[in-house]
Write a structure and sequence with these properties.
With 139 residues, the chain is α+β, with helices and mostly antiparallel strands. The protein is built from two helices and eight strands, in the order H-E-E-E-E-E-E-H-E-E. The protein has one domain: Immunoglobulin-like, CATH 2.60.40. The termini are far apart.
Length: 139
Amino acid sequence: MWRVTLTIGMSFALAAAAHNPKTFRTRLAPVAIDAAMKTNIAGLGSVTAILVGSKVTIEGKFDGLRAPATVAHIHKSVVTGVRGPAILELTVSKATSGVVAGSFDLRPEQIESLEKGRWYVQIDSQKAPEGNLWGWLLK
């Protein structure tokens, strides 16, 4: 009797832990790569990522760009604050304001890098194809 109750209780605890959402947030802001870019980039935004088990759902909004957004990605870096390659493509409004979103099934190493603060959102625009708005996804 005790074994059955303990096993059922542990199963419920493990299931609850697997579905316990983890939230990551960022504020999107312009980060000029060089002085010439300062005239081409502007805007603000925010993004939230919710991780449940191995699935992450990303939603956010932005406005104030000087040119329409062209693409948005999740980038991964080796350390927080340093640029890295794009790893996931987000959908983004092709306008100077709008929304950014995506939903992905992650591998264990991707979950680990997200939890360690190594992911950032980058929205590119027509006037800033190397990045108009950026923000690191942190707990």
